[in-house]
Amino acid sequence: MELAKYPFLDRAREYAGEIFDLSLTDLGDDTYERVWNRAVERIGEAIRERGVHQDAEDLFDYRTEILSFPLAVALVACVGDNRLREVFSLAEARRARLHLNNESASYLVNLASEVGVIAKEEDGDFGVSVLSYLKFVTAFKGATSWKLVNRVVTKGYVLVNNNEFRRLIQEAIKVKIYSRTLRIVSPKDFPENCLKYIQEVKKQWGAVFKERATTPIVGARITPPCIDRLKAKMERGENLSHFERFALATYLLNTDKEVDEVLEIFSLSPDFNARVARYQIEHLAGLRGSKKKYTTPNCDAMKKSNLCYPDAGCDGINNPLSYKRAGG
Amino acid sequence: MNEKNYSLVRKYIKQYYLKSKQSIWIPPPILEREFGFVIGLNKVMVRHKGFENEESVKAFLINEAPLDAYHSAALYDNPTASMDEKGFKGADLFFDIDADHIDPECGRDRRVWVCNSCNDAGLGYVEVCPRCKKGVSYVTFPNKECIEVAMLETKKLILILTEEFGFSYDDVKVYYSGNRGFHVYVPSEGVRSLDQDARKEMIDYIANPSPELDLLVIKEEDKEMYMPKIGLPGRILKELKEVFENQSVLESILGQRAAQRVRNEKAAILADLESGRLGTLLRAVGKNNLKNIFEQTLNRIKVKVDPVVTIDLHRLVRMPGSINSKTGFPKLKIDLQEVDADDILTNIEHQSSIIKVMVKAAPKIEVGGNVYGPYENAIIDLPTEVGVLLILRGVAEVI
Questions:
Q1: B140 falls within a domain
Q2: List of chain B residues whose C-beta atoms are within 8 Å of the C-beta of residue A135
Q3: Is the Cβ–Cβ distance between B200 and B248 less than 8 Å?
Q4: Which tens digits make up the pLDDT trace of B200-258?
């Protein structure tokens, strides 16, 4: 049961190996159809809903749960699209996070160590080793409360509360799953009669991400390097922090992009939710609520959030929006 | 530097690598490090070199007598390949602390001006070259005061690295740079996977802490505000106490009148701070002043390291035990517990030979426990290491 919740753990891999003692090519047998279907379902839900459901019934059928995970990883790896990798690993990490909410403190510390977060219990809260903290927290770029200066750091540990600790573990899980999907898997590694599953995943992925990859983003060259980086990150399908999204969206809106254009760009985000995103972008554009149009954060704020990578065009400007004029 | 000067410097460097009891040290694994050297009269930087072991590095140093020698903080699959093909595997953590960055004023009274046009030189301050009326540059020299300034920062850094980041003292290696600063090098396995963003985060914490105080201040059930006595808030509390113990510092922040007003409450404020509480302080100075005080306090706890160096993963680091061509002194490992600023220059090794030089201008300098100078347009015999220092600083010539 435990491994069905956390099938990305090395222990789950060993377990699957012991029980089934199989490699990918042995899985063509009809017996495994159910497992393949669940693997495709995992990816499909990740693509459509940016999450993966898992209820008591699924957990009861724990063998399918455990083995469908590495198959899903193999399928994602085989498709070989970084944005799909991102979408899948984030959705799986979110699924696991829901289970984390019910775990005890000591269990969390153990699980954390299995995904590369060294931590200990600390007076009802947690201490995360500085190096683990720095490794994973950079994904939350720009989030003030995660900045090291806003933390108590002592004897090699950063103090975090229960909720923050689970958020960090979620990130570590995502990174772990993502790195597993980077394995090179070719259709040749699949049994003949399972090639259809690859096709199915490709079809679902293609339906959602149709043509998006080729959408040109922002007229090139006159964009400041900080925004360029955010753009590139979005194009790679990486998950941007709240502040990064805010900076990118306000930049686009203030350079005369329409809400729909911005929405199109943000749809590359692995956790994209059209309804919520539209609301937020319209809010930033000043079309809702306070009717206040937000401007792009100043260079100082970008610097503070480690998002500033200045070049010559940045000399003497204090807002990314001024880049065009200054840089020529 | 002309050929004659260079040939003397080269000989000095060769002698050093042949005879010195100082040994070079390269953080293992040597095979995965890139090496770089500044070679020859024209100071050509040769990069992308690789070596199998310390002996072969040493042999190279003796043969080539490079002006400067560096190894990469990074590890590579192919350290000798071009940058794109090296195969980056991770990098050690490195900090550079230089007196010139900390306090540009430091050692100002011991500078020498050198004319950019006619190369004339002299002690003290001039606006333009007295002889040809052209612009001048200033040359500084390693001296006790500047080394002390840099050492103080280094000690602050070491405290954070050990007490807060939890590195063991063995992992944190401290070096005198051979000029006016210090290098702190952490060759520990755990730091190698830290990417640029993570190092930037670390640097923000060390060199430029600007926390959101709301996030560090905790409100207790009794509505009292307090800060934890550990980590960065702990350092802030300690510095706050120092500010309140020093009336003149306090006046410079609050102005005379406000500083006088809080004087009566000083004892209560200090006692409060001792237990991490901020209530009395806030009531005594008001919210705006408290903000000012915090800002000044944060300024005082900044550790003045060069941020660019730490964030750059492909940086070449001066090789421990190698000669620094700014001075001719070697970069040396030191133990901060045992060495103080006075010892650094006193411990510079004497090469037991004498050279005759023409010194255009030099301030009083202390090397190897002896005092030399000040000199102006003097032809004198000097111990080789002192003569070489002056030649390398561009204020003397061999005759």
A1: no
A2: 193-194, 198
A3: no
A4: 999 999 999 989 888 888 776 667 788 999 999 999 999 999 988 888 888 888 888 88
Question: Domain for residue B24, yes or no?
Answer: yes
With an 8 Å Cβ cutoff, is B118 touching chain A?
Answer: no
Do B39 and B182 lie in one domain? The reply is yes
Residues B389 and B358: their CA atoms lie apart, in Å, by 13
Q: What is the ipTM of this complex?
A: 0.88
Tell me the pTM. 0.82
Which residues, listed in sequence order, are joined to residue B97 by a DSSP beta bridge?
A: B182
DSSP H or E run through B299: helix B279-301
Residues B186 and B227 in one domain: no
Chain A: closest CA distance from residue B336 (Å): 20
B223 and B89 in a common domain: no
Q: Across the interface, do A145 and B198 touch by the CB < 8 Å criterion?
A: no
Asked if the Cβ–Cβ distance from B165 to A153 is below 8 Å, we say yes
Does any domain span residue B9?
yes
Q: Are residues B92 and B181 in the same domain?
A: yes
Residue A150: its chain B contacts at CB < 8 A?
Answer: 211-212, 215-216
Could you tell me the pLDDT band of residue A219, with boundaries at 50, 70 and 90?
Answer: very low
Q: B291: domain range?
A: 213-301
Question: Does residue B275 lie in a domain region?
Answer: yes
